[in-house]
């Protein structure tokens, strides 16, 4: 299963925010959309960062709620690992495990086209395992 196939099934919609927007605006978007991360993009949908719930909790926990008026750029992760549509679920799992992150922006020709979450990966991996199990049971029963 490839990233492109997952995006075709789940959709290409990605919540984004500009780096100059406030953390307050970002947290409102996270809460309103019930998501765990927002991709930070420039005006041409190039990925310049990612802001996760963990980033927000960490900075508020350390510095207090006054940081909510700071720019997203001051807190976001700016060295973002991305992938493209041709990568497989197994490759994505390796990226997420090695980097210890749960969201991976999908980029094509330098522009953001989607996002894959750990939930997407787990869902599709479980479906693969169920299909393999079903095929094995059918094979055994037909022998």
Automatic annotation (TrEMBL):
Give TM segment ranges.
Answer: none
- SUPFAM superfamilies, per this entry? CBS-domain pair
Keyword Transferase attributed: no
Q: Which Gene3D superfamilies match?
A: CBS-domain (3.10.580.10)
Q: Does the keyword Transferase apply?
A: no
According to the entry, every stretch annotated as the CBS domain falls at: 8-68, 76-133
> What SMART domains does this protein map onto?
CBS
Q: Which UniProt keywords apply?
A: CBS domain
Signal peptide bounds: none
- Pfam families hit by this protein: CBS (PF00571)
Give the protein name, as stated in the record: CBS domain-containing protein
This chain's source organism reads: Ancylobacter koreensis
């Amino acid at each position: 299963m490839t990233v492109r196939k997952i995006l075709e099934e789940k959709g290409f919609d990605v919540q984004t925010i500009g780096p100059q927007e406030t953390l307050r605006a970002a947290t409102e978007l996270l809460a309103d959309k019930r998501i765990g991360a927002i991709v930070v993009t420039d005006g041409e949908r190039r990925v310049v960062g990612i802001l996760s719930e963990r980033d927000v909790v960490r900075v508020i926990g350390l510095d207090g709620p006054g940081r909510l008026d700071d720019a997203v750029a001051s807190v976001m992760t700016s060295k973002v690992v991305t992938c493209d549509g041709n990568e497989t679920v197994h490759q994505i799992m390796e990226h997420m495990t090695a980097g210890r992150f749960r969201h991976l922006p999908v980029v094509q020709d330098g522009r953001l086209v989607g996002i894959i979450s750990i939930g997407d990966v787990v869902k599709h991996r479980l479906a693969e395992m169920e299909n393999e199990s079903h095929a094995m049971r059918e094979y055994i029963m037909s022998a």
